[in-house]
Amino acid sequence: MLLLFFVFLLFLFVIGINVILPPKKLLGNKDPEFVEKRRELLDTYLRQIIQLLGRNPPPELAIFLNLYDYEILFVLRKLALDIFERGEGFMEHGDSFPISPYQIYGIKVRMKMALPPLDSTDKREDFSHLIDFCTNVKKIDVIGSNIPIPKSTIIPNHFPMDFSPFKSLTGLTFKLINITRLTEVSSVRLTLRRLSVHNSHLESTSQLLLCDTLYKTYDEAGPSHIWPHLDSLNLSNNLLHSVSDLGNLVPNLRHLDLSFNQLSEIFDLTALPYLEQVSYAGNVLFQIHPLPLSFGNIRVLDFSRNQLETLEPFSKLYSLVFLNLSCNRLVDVEEVAHLSQLPCLDHLSLTGNPVASSLDYRVRALAYFGPRAMELALDNEKASLTEIDQISILQAIQKARNTMSHSNYHHRQY
Known about the structure:
This protein has helices spanning 2-14, 32-53, 59-64, 67-70, 72-93, 101-111, 127-136, 186-189, 205-209, 218-221, 246-249, 292-295, 361-367, 385-413; strands at residues 97-99, 139-143, 161-162, 171-175, 182-184, 194-198, 232-234, 255-257, 277-279, 300-302, 322-324, 347-349, 377-378, 381-382. By secondary structure, the chain is α/β, with parallel strands linked by helices. The protein has a twelve-stranded mixed beta sheet. A two-stranded parallel sheet has the order 3-5. Strand 13 (377-378) and strand 14 (381-382) form a beta hairpin. It starts with a helix and ends with a helix.
């Protein structure tokens, strides 16, 4: 670093910039008052140099001062160069392009500047290429941070994000962002099909879906805030405790992931007629009411890693194909009887429950499904030949008991 600094000083001397470097001293150079005063002088020194060099300081100076990491014009030049080199590949392969909240903020700020698109000697850094990419890109991953950019006080998550330059987005993922800094999403609201928010301390669905308005409910915001094409909403790994207005705001939703949040109750989802797949995994659900009215025609359901003790609430989900109830508190194998009349069920997971370690658990559980026992995959595994024989014996015994009970009942009647 010291060698680089001397090269930098030599470069300034060669191009005729003669700004005096603030002096040092041998004794007392660690005194807090002296350190603070010299820091201020160095700051003034660098500002003078940049002012003399204008908007296009030599690359050597820009690199030395880390301008490509935190100064907006240089951040966008670096981004434009990255898009020039990799953007087409992302578009062709349908991959998500990574971008930071600070870069999104910088794009909007740069659009308001009275500067030509090409303010650099390198044509690959032309800002118009960046705008063209934003207009056409289909998928992006916005990756935030609460840690300052190195050698600066700039924290990416402190800057507002305006998505108006993005006209064609169909997939948008947020990771580690400050959800309160979303200020404009009207353009992406009309085009998005898949929306994901992870590790962003999201507390309610309205906080996201109505992020660019002061209103907190659909009734207040109105139909202009509907996400008409959104069919997949993944809000896993947040702090969700409220799910509301989904039927009005995302009427065509098919996949909903609410896993690993702080939900303690099930919310009514009957207003989502196209919903097929729901995950409530990793929440704090203990007791839930019967689900048919809330879950309509859902085919895939994940309630793993909760605290459920009974399967009765699932007994009338007649469209259910896949049910994951692993890692709950199910103790009695008799609870499986509540699922025996679900005609479409072909995958059931109970692994990680106390019941899964009980004697002959698989045979006893599968026996409740009658002729369908051989078709059902329990804990990702269909019945073996040995288990099929044992199931047949259990079912025959149960049939005999039912016949005997029926006969005794009629005998008492006479």
